[in-house]
Amino acid sequence: MRIKDPNERSFYEIESDKNNWSLRELQRQYDSALYTRLSLSKNKEEILQFAEKGQIIEKPKDLIKDPYILEFLGLSEKPDYSENDLESELIDKLEHFLLELGNGFTFAGRQQRITFEEKHFYIDLVFYNRILKCFVLIDVKIGELRHQDIGQMQMYVNYYDREKRLEDENKTIGIILCQDKSEALVQYTLPENNEQIFASKYFTVLPSKEDFINILNSDNGKIS
User: Domains plus CATH for the chain?
Assistant: First the structure.
């Protein structure tokens, strides 16, 4: 692959070896601008570490991407599908979704029911990350993120921390996948020291090069 930036090229070489990517998967990760997406919230020194060591996951924010590229689902760009449809497609293509999520993820379940005071709630997708040693809860939303969605995820995370997490495990992480979001809404709904709940946009088609540049240069292209 002809990658002019030596740091970016080194990153893909290390990640290909570490994750045993096929040529096709390497091409997909490059086309989806993995290096650029992971670099969004990093300073210059941290980006240089990508070239030397690849992706190092030490804290929750290290494994969060924004946006996530779900073009492997084969869904149209327009939202003529339901949240259940999207969730089902993700499960049907679980191997691809795990590769998009990143290192260390294992699938734990879907539509996990939690119950208290005779009320039932269902978490869309539950994963466990072996590197961070914690549960990762994912909620899939069609349309724009609402503050109620963040509150709901906070409840899920609190429940897992208090009822499911073992003493030697780290705090639960919650990821809300949405088609659009207000950075101000996310900022003021979550506490300032938030390290557990993240909202990330997703795309069901691979953006064009021009669209990608606009996304990555906009406020919506920053990790919350």
Answer: 1-56 (no CATH), 59-221 (3.40.1350.10)
Alpha carbon distance, N-terminus to C-terminus of the chain: 32
Q: Rounded CA gap, 172 and 129, in Å?
A: 10
Digit-by-digit pLDDT tens for the chain (224 residues) are 678 888 889 999 998 998 888 888 898 888 888 888 887 767 777 777 887 888 888 888 888 888 898 988 888 765 578 888 899 999 999 999 998 998 899 999 999 999 988 889 999 999 999 999 999 999 999 889 999 999 999 999 999 999 999 999 999 999 999 988 988 999 889 988 899 999 999 988 877 767 766 766 664 444 33
Q: What is the pTM of this model?
A: 0.82
Residue for token pair 């290192």: 103
